[in-house]
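Most newcomers find our protein records easier to grasp once they have seen one. Sequence and backbone structure share a record, each on its own labelled line. To make this concrete, we reproduce a full record directly below:
***
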Amino acid sequence: MPKELHAQRLLAAITDGAYLIDREGYLVAANPAWLRQMEMKEKLVLGRHIKDVLWDYSFSHELAGTAAAYEGGSIACLEALESGKTVIHASADLRSRTAAYPVCNEDGELFAVCTLEWTQTFESTERELVRTRDSAAHSSGMIGTSAAMERLRGVIREVAPTDTTVMLMGETGVGKEVAASEIQKLSARKNAPFIRINCAAIPESLLESELFGHESGAFTGAAKGGKAGLLELAHQGTVLFDEIGELPLSMQPKLLRAIQEQAIYRVGGSRSIPIDIRILAATNRDLGQMVAQKLFREDLYYRLNVIPLPLPPLRERGEDMTLLAEQFLQEFNTKYGRRKSFAKSALNRMREYRWPGNIRELRNLVERLVILGSADQVGAEDVQRILTPQFQPNISETEQLSLREATEQFQRAVIEDALSRYGSTYKAAAALDTSQSTLARKARQYGIQVK
């Protein structure tokens, strides 16, 4: 299949307006959504320069606002073509937004730019922004009517429109990433990039290159032509540093300098690259205690902890548990083609539980309840069977063991279960209220294989 036809089929799958220009700025492909939006026929625009196409549309309609918006669109894609970087533009009235993405070949050479465009028409832009704000504050991501949730929403509504740094704190599974998404959706940067960086998931050896990017030849395996880092790609947008407490000490001064100077240096580069980003951070650890233990830099801590935002655990949101359980039940019934419902006794049993894994644990429980068993109604016994700790020792089997042997057996089962549940030593250690090094040492001691 010719490359042009292949690109055309890919663009056709996109519901927003999208088009592709070559390295000279000439239109080589456009999807039906964009052609309808432009009120143009494909055979009359392909092969023409993008500036001419967009200018013809604006001039023919004699709409100054639209002309300005689409001229901005052509500037965005041509800027991306020249700079080799992602460029995002928005019109002053927010009716039009354009994102232009460079496309490189196997050798890292730029040969095209793919552009997406969103256009909206409002009777009152202000009224639409208010409606968007209110709906976002009660979106499905933040379910709950408890006093704790209302307080959380109130704080988010206050801090979201500002550019201040927010530190999201709470136990594993309370929904810190969901709260960060709400802040971003209610901010002035809602149409700009939102990049989530899990500080525990990126190997330390790769972290600097991933955050700041690298120049060509900076190290063995470096991309030809260099590569932009995540902070550079987030320019004019928002960055969430998830599990910030796991950021290696060696990286902390470099991140602090980037935040203070609003600029970064690529690995192997000497050119300062300005960045305009809003910082959000999330952690389930006590960073203040880590500072006291010299495990986290004090200056970075105070730079990030401008607005501390604690998220309540699920056990403090009793009335929200039922709403969340029913929401997850509907989701998984749809996903797996089931028609299950909760008996009142099942919900009562859930309310009695402490939920150490919080919302994530509740969601996993409901998914298992939907998948397992043939009965349409889930009862208390079904819930109890799953909530009973799998690592609870059988006393009859331990009667002949010494206290040390029984303790080791129990610890081994606890660690195996936590690693199975959470997938990493960091998350398992946090759930068990111990350090990652202690958990890893115990796992080696008991011969538990750690991925």
About this structure: The longest helix spans residues 64-83. Residues 62-72, 120-140, 390-394 have pLDDT under 50 and may be disordered. The chain is about 50% helix and 15% strand. The two ends are 42 Å apart (CA to CA).
